[in-house]
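Methods — Computational structure assignment.
A single polypeptide chain was analysed. Its primary sequence is given first, followed by the predicted tertiary structure written as structure tokens.
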Amino acid sequence: MATRADIRTQIQRELRDPNGNSWSDDELNDLINSGINAVSDLSPREIREDITYTFPYTIAQGAFGKIKEVTPVNSFFNIFRVEILDNNSALKETLPASVSEGSSTGWEWFNGKVLLPENYWYPSTTVLVAGNPTEQIKVRIYGYGRHPFLTNDVTATTLTEQEQQAVRVYAVAEALSRLMTDRANFQQWQIASGSNDITISELAVLANAARQRWFGERGRLRKMRRLG
């Protein structure tokens, strides 16, 4: 998988700025993360997470009919399936989603938490919490989240090749648009890239072409979302 340094090098090549004379690494890094944010809206990351959840009630108190909220570690922005695992981590049942009548009818995604059905008998193991026997279950969650920003030059991105292409196109379009509003930087870019014959009007054409490429990439990226 590509790193931020790989993506930045490709962007610099497309901008005819391989030595970073017109755009600093920090500027391009910001554009890369802005592109990742934009791409995440269209082609989010698919995430699966297994969670061991301990009921907030002791066995003596009883958990049946009471609220059960599972908080994932991953940053989901949408959930499309919730499964209950048995004590050996094998699939026992896929829970139905709520039908907008509360979590008693099925699981519900609310405020960053998965609300499990209250009136359901879960396959559980018994653990001691503060000396009190308490039930513990295993839950598997499937959903969508944003691709993580790249904060260094060595961590590999979670983006696919197509998504990386879209990020590069986004960054180039934004960089050229900004160049149009900075005359001093434009003149520096003319010299550094060997593009002395390009006027500001011609740059506007290049920036518009780059923007149209981004619109095209957006259309290609739209992902059919799973509902369950």
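Note: Residues 45-145 form one domain.
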